[in-house]
Design goal:
globular; 10 helices; 190 residues
Length: 190
């Protein structure tokens, strides 16, 4: 399989996930602000999850572009990433419908943590396939940004049971850190 096929498949899966999430937004029953209020938590969660999926989509593009060749390990680790990304709509809906209750907020963080871990595993599979002098390895360096994100997600999960809004703020903070596509890869490949 060539990398354009892998990228097209991944793009399609991410597009479907975004579509599934938007279908969870219900039209308010009424035409006043009181009718809109129950939808606000679901909408806020949808916006964050849309941004997170967009971040994965853009960075995945750069990551696959950095790959010189596809291996079975890359294909399987890419599917591993897509599996965890596919749980974002469920976690988004559960957290939004339950007004950021502690357990759904913690589960949302767990899904985000597992997405981040699987992305890191995919990076490592690509680096392993490229060999000792991997362009990707040179581009990401020590990956402090990636490891900081993992630590923030890991901290936010138990924190959701103490202060759900602080946990949610951490999820937003990680998204803000990654909002600009990862330029380390882009610069190295240009």
């Amino acid at each position: 399989m060539n990398k354009t096929r892998l990228e097209a498949f991944s793009d399609g899966v991410i597009a479907i996930l975004i579509t599934i999430m938007v279908l969870e937004l219900r039209i308010p029953e009424g035409a006043d602000w009181d009718a809109v209020l129950p939808v606000v938590p679901v909408f806020i969660t949808y916006v964050l999850s849309f941004v997170i999926l967009g971040i994965y989509w853009t960075n995945h593009h750069h990551l696959i572009h950095a790959a010189d060749r596809m291996t079975a390990a890359i294909l399987w680790t890419n599917l591993h990433l897509l599996f965890w990304l596919s749980l974002i709509p469920f976690a988004t809906g559960w957290m939004g419908r339950n007004n950021f209750a502690p357990l759904p907020t913690a589960l949302y963080g767990a899904v985000l943590l597992l997405c981040a871990i699987s992305y890191t595993v995919l990076q490592r599979a690509i680096i392993a396939a490229q060999g000792e002098h991997s362009r990707l390895k040179e581009a990401i360096g020590s990956d402090a940004k990636g490891y900081a994100s993992l630590a923030m997600y890991a901290a936010a999960i138990p924190l959701a049971f103490v202060d759900r809004w602080l946990a949610y703020a951490i999820y937003v903070a990680v998204a803000l850190v990654w909002f600009i596509p990862d330029r380390r890869i882009e610069k190295r490949l240009s």
